[in-house]
Amino acid sequence: MKRMNLDRWSKKNIPNEKHVLQFFPVAAESAYLWLHFIGKSIWQTGSWVHHSQTVYLDVELVDEGEMFVSYGGERFHVPAGSAILIPPGESKLSAGNKMPCRKRFLGIAGPILANNMAAMNLDKAAVLRNFHNEEFEELYGALFTLFSEKKNDSIRECCGLIYRMLLLLSQSAEERSFPPELQRAVNFINSSFSSPMDLERICRAAECGKTKLQWLFKYHLESTPIRYLTEVRMKYAEKLLLNTTFPIKETADRCGYSDPLYFSAAFLKHYGCSPREYRKNQGAVSTVPHKKK
Predict the structure, then answer these.
(1) Is the pTM of this model over 0.90?
(2) Which residue, of 94, 126, 151, 234, has the fewest CB within 10 Å?
């Protein structure tokens, strides 16, 4: 009987750079919590994959570009520097149309996960914005190395690292359980930051008044709607400056700034150097947002 492939891929996705590791040792420890896969890949613009049914928690971290994910009747935007948690089931993942998407990923499965997904806040798709997490980098790097070596004597260590990863993701998902008004505002900003935007437009998208929305941003994100918008735009500008040769004017336009001089002033205020200096030094001038004295 011919085995059916439940995944469908866009044709242009096939030749993309892809490095996937799998390690399935026969051991009791691996039965409770294990990785179906761990890896990294580059998707060209417009690439996509449709999963008819999965049995693992899919964790996708976008390092460059952007990704769109459809799951449970909702569509999520995952910009660079963010991660998305995709529970078992049907899903579609696609790269953005502006630039290639470089990402890392891993799939977690096992009875420990299956029996505790709701309690661990992992039973719903969730985007983890600005997911620059040192612990994640440490755990991902260690797991990638161990799965590359595929040594049976590393099984127990692998299980311990996977459990730590699961706890980290659970905690991050809980922190991102925003009120619906705030979630709508955040989703609107992240998906439409390249368009003209002000506080009134954000409030309309969030279906929320100015006072309440500003309070929600301050309470949950220690920010304001406009400051959050600026952060998103600046992070995208940073990626464009380091990974493309777009002129400053075009970079500004893609980040939502019609005036390149205003964009340069905002970038200088945020990072402590001009966009040209940042590109010339490949980000070495400053990688930490400039703080007011």
Answers:
(1) no
(2) 151
